[in-house]
Protein 1
Amino acid sequence: MTKRILIVRTSSLGDLVHMLPAISDIAAHVPGAQIDWLVEESFAEIPAWHPAVHEVIPVAHRRWRKSWWSAQTRTERAALRKNLGARQYDIVLDMQALMKSVWLVRQTHGMRHGLNRKSAREPLASFFYDVKHSVEFWQPAVIRQRKLAASVFGYTLSGEPDFGLKQFTEDKNIEPYAVIMPSASRDDKLWPTDDWHTVFEFLTGQGLALQLLAGNPAETARAQTLVDGMPNAQVLPRMSLTEIAQRLAQARVMVGLDSGLTHLSAGLGRPTIGIYKASTPVRTPLQGSGYTASLGERGHAPSAQTVLSALRQALASELV
């Protein structure tokens, strides 16, 4: 029999990438699983990539909160409430455990599962679940999500994480370029210009072109300044997430700050170096089937030489 499942995890980009292996696990262990996913509209491409996801249901909370009581927002919120209210699920699984996700969970019909108050990021959220699960907080996000899914559906977690992204990697040639993500959501995550130039010089010496990602005009300007005068470098135009995934999947290597796109590169199985400066890799290390290095720590950025050492290992890993 079909087991109808609704996953509630709306954002952010990196967190959604970390979710994908749990979806693979559910599909492998729950016969007849029909998995729908409730997600922020700007990230709706990500769950749609996974072959086990039946339907993606977009929510526009980020846009709505800018004009919560406008006529358009009220109409869209009512439409979502009607959409969710018309569906009956066997299990509604909140994998975010925030009050903003609980607001969505409460509009659904089905047995509601989530983290208990000691495991949830916002403990108050746990009071709104029918079944509460304990998952140790201080462990990598990919493992944490996989353990929660295993607890909900009653199977034993095993094997390496499968991100379900083979559509981007199968039968694709690796091209002689490195993808660089020099921007992040916060300025305190930025890495010094001189260190980036040291990395760029090394990659150029390896015969690799540089392709820099940027998400908005400010990031584009910063990236352009970093590579000013470098003939082998280009700042890529703004692209869809699917187009970025296609670009990452064929890169020789990726170097990026702690950002969702860096985690996507790792999930695609490409050699990926992550630079952590204002966050800890304890909870969100890079994970994937290729070589990864999560360098630095909150308040302690890695040196350029540390990054170069990891890059040498990353490039060598492709030759093994």
Protein 2
Amino acid sequence: MSETIGFLLNDTARMFRRAYNARTRDSGITALQSRVLSYLARYPGIRQGPLAELIEVEPITLSRMIDRLEESSLVERRADPTDRRAWQLHLTASAEPLLDTLRETARDVVAEATDGLSDVERDELTRLVERVRANLSRRICQKDQKETA
């Protein structure tokens, strides 16, 4: 039986998450929490709504996750100076060493997953998956534009 590209990508992503979660279990950080921390490193001060859209979870799910990360002193909410009803999210100083460890773990999982591939094959795989993602992202954006028109 030949698997479809969608099935293969989805199944591979699930296996990546499982391998990553197994390696980060002792840290208490899940793959989704790690994504939140990574996005906060890229977009310091982002508000919860836009962050929920980026990681594709419901705002209430993100809010609970931020509560847990805040309780762990990894994230802090700061009042948004432009909107007193909103909060901006920031990493704390104690999150930085953990983020470095999580990035190293992610590199290890990728190295395991791409074992046996040459550098050229790894680069080609990355390029092709990025193109697939861009194609789907563009279609989603076009769909959103049609719905608002």
Protein 3
Amino acid sequence: MPSSDSGVATVEKTLSILEIVAERGGASAKEVSQALGYPLPTVYRLMQALVQSDYLVHLKGERRFELGYKLDRLGVSLHRQIGVPTAVRAEIARLHDTAQTAGYFAVYRGADVVVAYVVDSPDHPRLTPLGFGFHEAAHATAFGKIMLAGMSVDQVDGYLGVHGMPRLTETTMTSRPELDAHLAKVANLGVAWEHEEFVPGMTCAAVGVRNGAGMIVGAVAISAPSEQIDPARERALERYLRDASNHVSTYYRSGQLRKAAAVAV
């Protein structure tokens, strides 16, 4: 009977195989074996088990594996669990249109800060890798900092204990005292700015979304090239964000958004 350790190792290998196939848009067993350093017979056995469970498909004529159909159902279920209401989606779309930036909505999921919805366009693309489900680097993102500022000290300790404070750019804060002082300012101002701390050449800003008890439960955010952000643009973006935050907060307090009002530039 296999030990629990060997069972965990098998699960880890299986998930690594899925990740490689996803990243490469398909791969042969030999390619996966070389990428992960696992023996080819082990890789082939695990990939065949994934095929039988519909997590992979085997394109025999091309001698490669691709993602299976069951993963789509898992993705649909994940979106349903995180569940961004239609009215909130519409508000983020309005933010995108009004601010002429990518628009984001982030929420708490357990102890994580998670990107739940993004609206962008070819002219105003999202930051890579800020797509649905991104839950890293709260210390270096505007939506992460506004939400960290709404946490208790113990909650911040817990988050940073898991995720750390890796340096992503030359301006990323990696000192806890520096971050704590910054979060105190964010909490006081009610808006978080991030100037090239996450991605070089890009600036982001975020404002918290509050529930009926006044607790931060989410964040609305934007991103734009730093070269487009001057003091006047910064003030305008902050107005757009506060307006969007008020609308979404109204939804979370009452279950419905008030009619979107035009915001003067």
Protein 4
Amino acid sequence: MSSPLIVLVGPTATGKSGLAVELALLLGGNGRGAEIVNADSMLVYRGMDIGTAKPTLEERGGVAHHLIDIADVTQKASVAHFQTLARAAIADIRARGAVPILVGGSALYTRAITDVFEFPASDEVVRARWEAELEAVGPFELHRRLAELAPASAAQIEPGNGRRTVRALEVLELTGGHRPVIPEWTYELEDVHQFGLNLDRAELDRRIDNRVDQMWEQGLVDEVRGLLDAGLRDGVTAWRAIGYRQVIEFLDGAATQDEARAAVKKATRRFFRKQLGWYRRDPRITWLEANRADNASRIAARLDLLDSGRS
């Protein structure tokens, strides 16, 4: 029996992780084993728990989760490497007759895993030179330079996202061009079914504010302090995660704690609106209201994975 790949997407704080576990347990109770594959680039880092809202062992409900806690914060993450790991995990789950459930909040990562997706050229020397320039002039000045060279590409990148700006400049130098859009909607993997969680914008804003406040109460600042001792600054990608970057600014004295907390909320809202725009352009996604209690059973029945759903 072939196993479909179920993909759960949508903005942060819509309940994707909880729905994935609920769905996996539902399928397991109906004789179809299911395992979850993480598609969030920051959940791979050990110790980055509070700021990423990483599901605890209890919240995972005994369901196997792949690609969580597989790297130190000093290691570099890339979409290309993540694509390889995730596709291998999905293939392994399917080979064992179980249903893989891919869960993520980044359209770039989920599409890199499921779709025909080729990566532009890369050169460590060129990238190192642009990373040194980033350190020298800062992300906003570097983004301004990208805007002069490739305005369409710059328009797709947040001015403060130095890592993506560096990558765009690297590709531009190596190839003479940088495509600001990802490929068309063509699946590389077979039998993919995407479901998005939709939530009222005002409710989503409220959930984000509450989540960030809860992170502070759970000890996000202390978590970041510990990660700095573990070499967080030495990594290329981990320290730039939303929440961690702002807390580092507070610990460095560049912002007050209240300013840092407000900045995390603002950055999270900006991120989810951008991601939602990407997802809304994908006609293959079936949208579900996030607050519905029967979403797991609706997905399972739609894919004919429950005995009660068989005709």
